[in-house]
Amino acid sequence: MAASSSWKRATTALTARARRRAVALTAGAVLAASLLVTAPAGAAPGPVLQCQGTETTTYDPGIVLQPRDITVTVEGRLDSCLDGTGGVTSGAYGERFLFNAGCNNLLDGFTDRRAFTWNSGERSVVEITGTTNAVAGQVVTTITGTVVEGRYAGRSLLQVITLPQPDLLLCLTTGLRGATGVTTLTLT
What we know:
The structure is a single chain. The protein is α+β, with helices and mostly antiparallel strands. The protein is 19% helix and 52% strand. The protein is built from one helix and eight strands. An eight-stranded antiparallel β-barrel has the order 1-2-3-4-5-6-7-8. A hairpin with a 4-residue loop joins strand 1 and strand 2. It starts with a helix and ends with a strand.
């Protein structure tokens, strides 16, 4: 009976140690997981708005080799938006401006203001800077800026527009008349 009692005490002590160890391991795992999920102090907040859509750019007259004044018309539709604050599901933007361009300098950088109109009826005006590069058969324009008035004022913008690379043979004939491609927009 004494052996049975000793064995019972040893088993109970072992079980208590196993429980403490399990609790300590669980607490450690919870702490480690919270460190992975919690953003470090000073980390940039996530996007407030993310959109996908299309942009159509037209040139009148068409762009040829020799630089000349061209009226550029831009029409963008953001049909799929995810708004962290709620309310915005789509938007649009458009501009018309004069640009001196030829096929050899079509990729020059630019600065401008771009106004976005949201499905909520609100607007955002952004001061933008754009750079354009030819990449893998496409013209990729990257626009950065800051919302200076309206909804999302003070937020930073990143917009990427990807258009098919123009048929350079058109530079020798009727000229490039325009293109349509995809765009993504992120506000943080």
